[in-house]
Write a structure and sequence with these properties.
By secondary structure, this protein is mainly beta. The chain contains no helices and 25 strands. The protein folds into 2 domains: 191 residues; 84 residues. The strands form 5 sheets. The chain has a 7-stranded parallel sheet, with no helix packed on it. The mean pLDDT is 91.
Length: 301
């Protein structure tokens, strides 16, 4: 499909969830959609297979000129792990949903998506809105689904509008069904964030001021990664950190050592390797990916 224009203009002022039309549905794989514009459908594309390729499209679901609290997915990729590529896409007042509805009962992963060079725009007052949503089935056992091989790069996420609330670039639907400590191949970097939304990245770098107590008089201090990884990923490893000393009696930055990682709280503890207090700033870079010993240096994005 190339150079197409589709619209249900009579539905422009109807709440997205009250619309009934779907523009494109495919259960066959290896489909191509290029340079196509679509507006005011309940869903623009429902894709039940693999190897979708999209480039140069603009899908708009929202109500024009209003801050919204009612959204539907413009794209639903329902095969779980799909191996799809979306480039140069304008995502307008809507979101992309990755789910398992068309996958086998044994499928336990959602992903296989490359999203590059896109503009994701919303005017949302819906507190649980996100631009990319991984959704598990209600019948899946808790803690069995993982997100795998998702790359999101060179994309601008924007949330503006009157009474807009903080939204997320990515999130989970039915989060209890996922295991955020088993993610693999997640890369989210080189993106921009504008307006009322929380940035996310993987690998993610956090700068934080710390006060590391003298050993025996405290438990160190923590760098907090909560909510900063895509798809609610859990902090698995701190891959690097640098320090800048601002106070305390400890003489050298070398006295600061990485302590325990609390994966349940997404925090990394830092301790003082000497016998004196250390005050300063730490830049820590962490990942939500499960790291495996391949014999090669760590490459995470």
């Amino acid at each position: 499909m190339d150079m197409c224009w589709m619209t249900c203009s009579d539905m422009a002022n109807t709440a997205a969830s009250q619309r009934t039309q779907v523009a494109i549905y495919s259960s066959a794989g290896d489909q191509k959609v290029f340079n196509t514009t679509a507006a005011y459908f309940r869903h623009t594309l429902i894709y039940d297979s693999a190897a979708l390729m999209m480039d140069g499209c603009h899908f708009f679901q929202g109500t024009p000129g209003t801050t919204m609290n009612d959204h539907t997915a413009c794209i639903k990729i329902q095969s779980g792990y799909s191996g799809s590529i979306i480039n140069n896409f304008y995502l307008g007042k809507s979101f992309i949903e990755l789910n398992l509805e068309a996958s086998s009962a044994r499928e336990r992963r959602i992903g296989g998506l490359t999203l590059n060079g896109c503009r994701a725009y919303a005017e949302s007052s819906q507190s649980n809105f996100a631009f990319i949503v991984a959704r598990a089935r209600t019948t899946d056992a808790n803690g069995t689904i993982k997100v795998e091989d998702v790359t999101i790069s060179q994309t601008i996420f924007m949330n503006r509008g009157t009474n807009a609330v903080e939204v997320l670039p990515t999130r989970l639907y039915n989060p209890a069904k996922f295991n955020p400590r088993k993610y693999l191949g997640i890369m989210m970097r080189g993106n921009g964030f504008d307006g009322v939304l929380r940035p996310q990245a993987n690998p993610c770098s956090v700068v934080q001021d710390v006060d590391i107590a003298v050993p025996g008089h405290g438990n160190g201090d923590f760098v907090d990664f909560t909510g900063l990884f895509p798809f609610a990923g859990s902090l698995n490893e701190v891959v690097s950190f640098t320090t800048v000393k601002t106070g305390g009696a400890a003489a050298f930055d070398a006295n600061v050592v990485l302590g325990a990682i609390n994966r349940a709280k997404d925090t990394a503890q830092f301790d003082c390797g000497g016998t004196e207090q250390w005050l300063g700033r730490i830049l820590a870079t962490g990942t939500c990916n499960l790291l495996t010993d391949t014999g090669y240096p760590l490459i995470d994005g």
